[in-house]
Amino acid sequence: MSGSVLLSTMVLQMRQSFSRNMFRFCLIANPILNTVLLYEMFRNSGQENFAAYVVLGSGLMAVWGCICFSSAGDINRERFSGTLALVFAAPAGFPYIILGKILGNTLLSLLSLLISLLTAALFFRAPVQLASPGYFALAMLALVLSFVVISSVIACQLTLSRRTTLYMNCIEIPLILLCGLSFPIEVLPRWLHPVSRCLPPTWAVELLRSAVAGVTQPGPFFQRLLILLLITAVWVLMALWLFRVIDRQVRISASLEVC
Known about the structure:
Elements lengths: L1 H17 L2 H22 L7 H31 L3 H5 L5 H16 L1 H13 L9 H26 L5 H7 L1 H7 L14 H5 L2 H14 L4 H36 L6
Helix pairs in contact: 1-5, 2-3, 2-6, 3-5, 3-6, 3-7, 3-8, 3-11, 5-7, 7-11, 7-12, 11-12
């Protein structure tokens, strides 16, 4: 039952998301513009691997933009359509429906990485190489997992909020900076490093960059992967706890309506 709910919700969400102009802009135009911007920033930086920072960075920024404006925006759209309470009380289960929406948005947004790659290859004739494809595939799975988990926590927190639009516009750039999607977190102030290390996408991005550059020593790669899985487990527990708190609050106050 739960598997069919996830699959059907995921497919439906992909269709609905791609039908929206804003999502298509985030999916198609954002990676192109981000690639141009990061190329101008990094072309004289002395970085040996162009793909690790320009192509990968611009694609990841677009991926998070799609997830942020869709997964967070879906709560707002359901509320103002008057269907949030119905979705919450559906027999299929609110967590499965929200998880299906997040999975659909995340998987569809991965096309941004391909668009960034094509932009760099066509416009800048940039040398793009993938040294460790197997490790890259594993890192991509870790990236999807990290984005899904952090989006689930954000979706839980926004369920009761009436300022969803404000918050989803405020969380995009901070997470891009804190997780090092466009540049290494080492350039951030040292007091922000612990915050960055507590976010699952930070570790997933490091795994991706190491796979693009080439994994010569598997030990450090799998050590980062293990840390990512442990941090992700903590975020999963946080999401489950938040849902229970929200479920209790909703049943007491009936606060999911539009007004």
